[in-house]
Amino acid sequence: MKSYMIRGQSATSHIQLGEPFHHLEQYIGKRTAAIVTDETVYSVYHDLMPSKNIAVIKSGEAFKTLQTVEALYQKFLEYGLDRAALIVAIGGGIVCDIAGFAASTYLRGISFGFVPTTLLAQVDASVGGKNGVNFHGYKNLIGTFNQPEFVLIDVGVLKTLPARTLGCGFAEAIKHGAIADAQLFAFMEDHAAAIRNLDPDCLERIVSDSIIIKSSIVNQDEKEHGERRKLNFGHTVGHTVENVLGIPHGEAVAIGMVAAAELSRQFGYLTQADFERLTNLLTLYNLPITIDTTNRQALKEALHKDKKRYEEVVKFVLLKAIGTAIVQDVPIEELKRLLEMF
């Protein structure tokens, strides 16, 4: 088992890679606990959930709302949770985001932990302490920075996932390589077939490298005032595409990365060869690299809902090379022009 640590202002988060699902009870101890999961995960893993207090929420981005959080508060009251209690999210990124936010605000904050069951959650969403929900079409508009007490990662659970769900996790791992680790990027190029076939050693490598990258960045800048902004590579255009087209998050981020790489190329930062390496790698993992819509106006309007916008400028992540990213102010009008190219 490999261990990693994030030292946040609110708490220290212990991330355990290679910790089997059935060891969760050891982390709960004698505390009163509530499990938060979704319908899909509950149907597969309910026998392994070590608490009688199980709140099952609906699956999907459409239910990542304050209404779902309110329903969880009601469940927490029914379970008699106090400030010594523990909330455990078992599921993908959406479950972790919702449960982390509910735990961070119930009784002004109680302890919580994550057992991520999707690759996207293992490489990204469960690590770093961002928790939140969507609001009136704005992605993650309402949320907190608060670290989970623990994150237990077992790559063995990924074998139950459909290919499209796995692809979303591959997109986030590619993102980490693109912004901070050329060796991870090259590993995903050289071992694409084994990774897609869920070779355990290859999966553990991309999860481990992703955690190292993200934990290092978050330890420097927990609340996204500088360095952490690089983790948003592909997410400005990605969130826009996700909101308008309703496609999965990872697929939208893949498109967003191509858009950001194209702008990086136009600005003279990224070579044509590196641009093609990115698009080729995304294609290897069956991820989209173009926007499949003629409704460009809706996409342009959605740009104004981006949290990284400061008046008419966005803190935008660009690539200087594979493995090296920078953050630069880019006018929204420039991004609207970019959308016309896809």
UniProtKB/TrEMBL annotation:
Subcellular location: Cytoplasm
Listed GO MF terms: 3-dehydroquinate synthase activity; metal ion binding; nucleotide binding
A GO cellular component annotation in the UniProt record: cytoplasm
Name of the top EC class for this enzyme: lyase
All copies of domain 3-dehydroquinate synthase N-terminal, residue ranges: 56-166
UniProt keyword list: Amino-acid biosynthesis, Aromatic amino acid biosynthesis, Cobalt, Cytoplasm, Lyase, Membrane, Metal-binding, NAD, Nucleotide-binding, Transmembrane, Transmembrane helix, Zinc
Catalysed transformations (reactions): 7-phospho-2-dehydro-3-deoxy-D-arabino-heptonate = 3-dehydroquinate + phosphate
GO process annotations (BP): amino acid biosynthetic process; aromatic amino acid family biosynthetic process; chorismate biosynthetic process
Amino acids binding Zn(2+): E172, H235, H249
Name assigned to this protein: 3-dehydroquinate synthase
